[in-house]
Amino acid sequence: MASNSASSIAPQFTYGTFSYAALSTTRYATPLPSPVTYAAYAPAFTAVSTLLPLNATTTTYSLVPNATDSADMFGQSAYSALWNAYSYNLTVPFTTTVSPTPVAATDLIYPPPTYTPYSNPVTSNLLPADFVWGVAGSAWQVEGGLQIEGRGPAVLDFIGALPDTAGATPPVTTTMNYFLYKQDILRLAALGIPYYSFSIAWPRIVPFGKEGSPINQQALDHYEEVIDFCLENGVTPVVTLVHFDYPLLTPPTSDTFPAHFLYYAKQVLTRFADRVPIWVTFNEPNNLSGADFAYNINILLSHSAVYNFYKDVLKGTGKMTLKLSNNFAVPLDPTSANDTAAALRYQDFLLGILGNPLFLGQNYPDSVQSTFNTTYLPPLTDAQIEQFNGTIDFFSIDPYTTQFATPPDVGIEACIADPSNVLWPVCVNTTFLQADGWLDGNPSNDYVHTTPAFFTEHMSYLWNTFKPSGILISEYGFNQYNEALMAYDIARFDTLRSMYYQEFVDAMRMCIWDMGINIIGALAWAYVDNDEFGSFSQRYGLQSFNETTFERSFKRSIFDYVDLFTNLVSKD
């Protein structure tokens, strides 16, 4: 006897009369309500200014090449001398903040749908109402004006300097966000994007980068205006203290780095912490490109000192974290003990060095300690572990893609014993090719592959290994293959980027509802195409910009991204 359950009822097929339906109708983006309403996250500057070092002074600098006006070690001529090693083949096209104009209604028209939505969509398993979603950028990559308004040089500034660095795009212009930030924020607000993650340039605030050196008043005024303009227009700021652009004189490998960083961070936090709910101390200090593992102790010392100042001295009630890079390693052959060991070893080096002491109150992973001698990387002391443990409010991760791991041809142990091996000290081979010859996902113009199928496993590793209170996806994005070579109308219809975000967000919902993993937010990289450390050909942006007029243009993906979260974030 046939069952009468709904699953066994056959669809009914009937004929009717054909008529054209309006599948594409003009629809406009919904702007954010403004301003942002919030309770202060820390006391106002007037109440805590006494917490700043007594020797801190403010000044303004201007770049006057070969100036000899002062013998002061931090005077105008000393400031100009900082730039002696750098010259650029472009000058900035404007040097004052551009007054914003309302975003044209024609720019806010949604693109046509790319599929026919099912009439009974699943509305369960929504993202939490307090889910933090938005977009991200960083100072060095978008601001331009490197030598404008008293900014000091950064360790990154050799990129694009003369003599030309292998054709690198000069960062003195990039998207000119330093003077176009109001227009950028208005565009986000007009689309309804509630969070904007950006970084403050340490070399702007403290041009010499050093403890006790003058504070640049123009930079303080600028970033205060950025934060206030966000809030006035309904956008909530998420602020990173340094995104790779360390001051030239204070690289993170310096023994005095923690003192310099705390000096800078105090200047920023005392002034702006009352208006910012989420702070990030460092961006991807664990990035393995040219890694010097010994300097991680400086990151731990610096981060914990700033965290303690924010929580215990400033009495900040917001959240503080640091962002970690992790292109997750999975075993090339999941049934192979050797491949599994290689994947876990890779994760130890990438995440365990900082994650163990911060989240678990544990020393560096055994795999790391057994690779280095104790002169190069001394084990953490019990006092240090106690100092670092718990000085982070949630896990922030930049999980752009996934790769496969396998041991070196000579084996892990032989590699460890041979510092001349090109894979030393991590001693793990990584690849995007599966054992069967297929790529793990659709390739982009750089290293990113669309790998959402591995996302839940990645989050499970973080959640169950480090046991954080929550996980913020602090960057994720996709740079379409050869987008820079496409005609404008083709490039802006970036469906593959939209699919990347759709699939990752669906995986986030699976983490939350099916796996019990607390994903608290997701911030897309990047809000606009920018200088990817010497190249505009790597286009991660949800917007493009004209390199002559600097006018921004929305891509299809930014509308799809807004739709995605508008429909999936609970209204309760």
UniProtKB/TrEMBL annotation:
Alphabetized InterPro entries for the sequence: GH, Glyco_hydro_1
Single biological process term from Gene Ontology: carbohydrate metabolic process
GO molecular function term, any single one: beta-glucosidase activity
Superkingdom of the source species: Eukaryota
Pfam families found in the cross-reference section: Glyco_hydro_1
Stated family: Belongs to the glycosyl hydrolase 1 family.
Name this polypeptide is given: Glycoside hydrolase family 1 protein
Native source species: Coleophoma crateriformis
